[in-house]
Amino acid sequence: MTRGVVAAGHRLTAEAAAGILAEGGNAFDAAIAAIAMATVAEPVLTSLGGGGFLMARRAGGETALYDFFVETPLRRRPDSEVSVEAILADFGPVTQEFHIGLGTTATPGQVPGLFAIHEALGSVPIARLFAPAIETARDGMRLTRFQTYLFDVVAPILSASESARAIFAPEGHLLREGDLLRNLGLAETFERLVEEGPSLFAEGEVGQAICAQCKEHGGHLTKEDLAAYRVVERDPLIWRHRGGALALNPPPAASGALIAYGLGVLEALDDERSDTLHLFRALAATNDARRRHGEGLADRLRGGALDDEFAQLAAHPPAYRGTTHISVIDAEGNAAAVSLSNGEGNGHMVGNHGFMLNNMLGEEDLSPDGVGRWREGVRLSSMMAPTIISEADGTVTALGTGGSNRIRTAILQVALNLVEHGMDLETAVCAPRMHVEKSGKLSYEPGLDMGEALQEASEVHAWPERNLFFGGVHAARRHPDGSLEGAGDPRRGGDSVIV
Prior knowledge:
This protein is α+β, with helices and mostly antiparallel strands. The chain has 17 helices and 22 strands. Residues 294-304 have low confidence and may be disordered.
């Protein structure tokens, strides 16, 4: 008898969830174990100092979105007291400027999120769910090739402080593929969380260490920020397309409304032109819609069905940062799609507690008037898009991806591959993708017949092979007969396990 399926960004993350499923835990228990393990196994992409979202579908069909993403601090310190530093991340072909330092840290939600999800949906004791992460952090794990690449990309962050170097460069140089990464401080933090619960991060020792570090080294966070943080349960944005119902991340997240808008534009394009041209136009139109916050959508989509959603986004500044994803479906049909982010990290470990706080406030798009000009006390918008698709025949798919502003385009295309083109899950995930920037630049992977789309793009970049630039969709699927599929995207070192 199969117990369920997991797809994630690292083999250890998937195995942690699979172990819980094998013991009879539900999809949400497995997701909690995977979140904990991801903070150990995928430290560049997620952390106890970050945040995220869970799209949860109970076996009976009831679906809810749990928002534990980061918030801007309640009070902004004067610029003269704030520590912010620009660094260059090296992706190989291009570099990108990020900002780190304590002044870039928003109020984290990951720990409150873990416990809120467990209270609402869990069935297995939290000690059991954290056990795989504790064991791996204590004993160590061997770095993969993909992790080595990520370490190289954010090398200035992982070597920005003595505390970070002690974990990621213990012998004076960054750890490489095959090297052992150990984090005894993180193992101890998880053990303390088992004993003390989320209060450890609110008013307990870890919360006190966060506040002291921010006060002494140019951060904004105070005990009031940590005490005031709340996980928010939201109704998902439901969008129907070609017989499938997509449960999408609602506002203040931007992703769900943008994916729905793109699908709506495709439905409106009913001429005989090529699929790739339709897709190019839908992606370009979605970029325009995001800039206009919903103006004029009434004449395009079902009497303006998304006007309210787009209008809400103006009040929540966007954050487009490094992300990982976990998808789980159990034998009963419970489904969990979890997207997580720590930005890239602020460069400083919190005391001896084994984790780095986020650098979400260093996002340039967050502060169009300059880094540090963000609004106070606001839940940030996000492009993270944990999604659950329910098809007319009872098939359920949980999916999501990393990829910054490419997240929504990756999810839209995989959804189309499944719902419109009837692909199996692995084929749908691995199929070539395209992306359209706000400038009109078209990027695409080999294998797509671009045809007329090339004539409408302002600039074209043909990638020589599949690339992590186009996201890393990790997906799990359950069919009405109980059969399961899992697909971890090879673009981002993904893996899947059926148990």
